[in-house]
Specification:
This protein is α/β, with parallel strands linked by helices. It folds into 3 domains: about 55 residues, lambda repressor-like DNA-binding domains (434 Repressor (Amino-terminal Domain)); about 130 residues, Response regulator (Rossmann fold, 3-Layer(aba) Sandwich), CATH 3.40.50.2300; about 160 residues, Rossmann fold (3-Layer(aba) Sandwich). It contains 12 helices and 13 strands. The chain has a 6-stranded parallel beta sheet, with helices on both faces. GO terms for molecular function: DNA-binding transcription factor activity; transcription cis-regulatory region binding.
Length: about 350
Amino acid sequence: MAVTIKDVAQAANVSVASVSRVLNGHATVTEETRAHILAIMKQLRYVPHVGARSLSTSLTSTVGVLLPDLYGEYFSEMIRGIDGAARSRGLHLLVASLHGGADEAATALRTMRGRVDGLLVMSPHADAAFLSDNLPERLPIVLLNSGAGGGSYASVSIDNYSAAYAMVEHLTACGHRSIGFISGPAANFEAQERLRGYRAALAALLPEAREEVHEGDFTEEAGARVGAALARRMAGKKRPPRALFAANDMMAIGARLALQDAGVDVPGDIALAGFDDIPVARYVTPALTTVRVPIAGMGARALDRLAGLIGCRSDVNNGNSSGAAETLDAQLVVRASSGPLVPNAPDASHRILQKGDGS
């Protein structure tokens, strides 16, 4: 038979209430008693009954995570950060990936109801009205890189606009006077802000230059299509932009591979830059100039914010009342793919991009 909480209490010579307080992390238990009870649990191989525990605490010790995708290094890093922060708090994850439109996102949200203590959400559909329509009012929620944060819902993000602006500044400092851009998905808030930063910087720094935006979707394949198209322009003696800025690293890497296959030199023939600084960005040849986003750190910080909201959910106020928008620093990381700076240009290597930079 399975070991019960009563068995633990009897073996430890304490009350069932004391064991329950240790399981629920109450601060009223002395460290000596806590250590003693935990040792007995380990000795007896006691496993808490999650269902029974949730009946007494109204908590499941599980948080939901809704992401647009689970594929690729960006989302692997994001989940790594969330998972590490969750494990340190004794929390479990219920993860779902959103590939469809608003109806699929609504279904995914509704399936989480009653199964999680709170939600981390990164979705283009996650505005305040959408969340309110599909989730209980008191369920704690933290948004990741969403334009809907700062009102009813807490959020954690970076200043994508300022970071994209700074990247165009850097490419300009390298002497590039025509800069193309590969955009992300049209409905994605991060992609919108990065495109807005590119356009604003181009208008301010290179007013005579023509804007050149290629549609992308954050995939390596999208970058490869753009890279191949630019290589064909070169082969046909049609001048491509002197630099290409992709809205994420995967598209930049895809473009790099297509250009390489066509015999185009980076950065000699065309400079290249990305965004996110996924782990592989430093290992491609030439190493990729990019914006370093603290991806795992962002996930961990969002989980910490959510745990704080879950902890105060019993308050009379709505669990989402702490709807502060938190913006984390990004960092411009200059590597070989963008080419050397022109003489006397300011060195932007490892510049810290804080909220408001470049706007």
